[in-house]
Design brief:
The protein is an all-alpha fold and 95 residues long. 44% of the residues lie in helices and 0% in strands. The protein has a single domain, classed as ACP-like (Non-ribosomal Peptide Synthetase Peptidyl Carrier Protein, Chain A). This is Carrier domain-containing protein.
């Protein structure tokens, strides 16, 4: 069975894409997991969110199924990391 990237890899990729979308000069280590996606620092809107998903699929070489996002709320960076890790096929024991 093929597994996707591990959680630290997904987290780093998510943070890099979030930083790029927010046009910030930060490192992934400077973005806490509980940082709001649409807060004072990141300010990600719905269009930016969709663009980030496309960039994450490219960065992680995965396809995230649309139904993965149905009924979910994405308030923080970690919320996005959780769903991307799930969609990328992260092993269950790693979550």
């Amino acid at each position: 069975m093929t597994t996707g990237p591990d959680r630290p890899t997904v987290s780093d990729s998510v943070k890099r894409v979030v930083i790029a979308e927010s046009r910030l000069s930060l490192t992934p280590e400077e973005i806490p997991g509980d940082e709001p996606l649409n807060g004072d620092l990141l300010r990600i809107n719905s269009l930016g969110f969709v663009g980030m998903l496309v960039h994450l699929e490219d960065a992680l070489d995965v396809t995230l199924p649309d139904d993965l996002f149905v009924g979910r709320t994405f308030r923080t960076v970690d919320d996005l990391v959780d769903v991307v890790a799930e969609g990328a096929g992260e092993p269950e024991e790693a979550r």
